[in-house]
């Protein structure tokens, strides 16, 4: 019989667990705070619980652990990339980025990815499985235990969060809970490659969480070449979903646009992007792509990047060019995991 994973339970669910164990409901709140506020890894640290209760919890429940397999640090900008191994031996990547206002953590939502984007290392082996809400939390808590509280969280690592929608929502409920980590909604950003139906579903929640859409190309035929999801949800459908989101939430969408030499960086691409943004409350985040082994694609030179940015600005489009972080490490999603798996096969 497998033990109950307490980190994956909401406070209400935890109350039910404690009731089934013959304990008072208020114990659930104490345990919830130990797990999510103090981020303990052992029941012995729960000093306001009786020893018999701690022993009962040890025998029937668990606080899951992850192992830090590898850490890469870019000493120029402080970016760190961690490779974690979960209990079943699967790997996931997490990136910590340091800014003036504080640190931001980019977490994975799946082991691998089935979206098939041609510029991303995460998709090379397909999708192995979804991550649980607890496994998403563990990526953050491990960093916070070692280097203090993070300022913001981005669900933009390995995987498509909206392809793991129920666990993504559970993760948000847990990290946002006032008796838990209590990370404000506006400090959370979720990124999707464009699952239009889920964008609408997410809009209906009217949450304050930031939405980023990985657009990368605003010409339908060209987008479908680099992002297979565009064959299911074309640009017209995607734009309609974005309009719905904005009308429901009155919140701006960030469109992530990867600059790929000769694929997304031409002026005809910029014109298409300007047309797509017309009538939308949005911001464009230009991202020079990180090179990926096995993917014959690279970012254009700086001159081309700024020419593209300036062209959008002259058209009145709110745009920024993302500062490249982690240039000296395997910064692209999925690269570090792929390397580790190749080493293990040798």
Topology:
Blueprint: E1 4-5, H1 11-20, H2 26-36, H3 51-60, E2 61-62, E3 67-73, E4 80-85, E5 91-99, E6 102-107, E7 110-112, E8 127-130, H4 133-147, E9 152-155, H5 165-176, E10 188-192, H6 196-204, E11 210-214, H7 220-226, H8 229-232, H9 235-249, E12 253-259, H10 267-277, E13 282-288, H11 302-314, E14 319-321, H12 335-345
Parallel strand pairs: 1-2, 6-9, 9-10, 10-11, 11-12, 12-13, 13-14
Antiparallel strand pairs: 3-4, 4-5, 5-6, 7-8
The CATH topology of the largest domain, please? TIM Barrel
Structural class: alpha/beta
Q: What sort of overall outline do the alpha carbons produce when their principal axes are compared?
A: elongated
* Model regions low in confidence, pLDDT < 50 over at least 5 residues: none
Helix content: 25-40%
Assigned CATH architecture of the largest domain: Alpha-Beta Barrel
Number of strands: 14
Structure notes:
With 346 residues, this protein is an alpha/beta fold. The protein folds into 2 domains: 4-62, DNA polymerase, domain 1 (Orthogonal Bundle); 67-345, TIM Barrel, CATH 3.20.20. The chain is 37% helix and 20% strand. It is built from 12 helices and 14 strands. The protein has helices at 11-20, 26-36, 51-60, 133-147, 165-176, 196-204, 220-226, 229-232, 235-249, 267-277, 302-314, 335-345; strands spanning 4-5, 61-62, 67-73, 80-85, 91-99, 102-107, 110-112, 127-130, 152-155, 188-192, 210-214, 253-259, 282-288, 319-321. The strands form 3 sheets. A 10-stranded mixed β-sheet has the order 3-4-5-6-9-10-11-12-13-14, with helices on both faces. Strands 1-2 form a two-stranded parallel sheet. Strand 12, helix 10 and strand 13 (282-288) form a beta-alpha-beta unit. The protein is elongated and about 70 Å long.
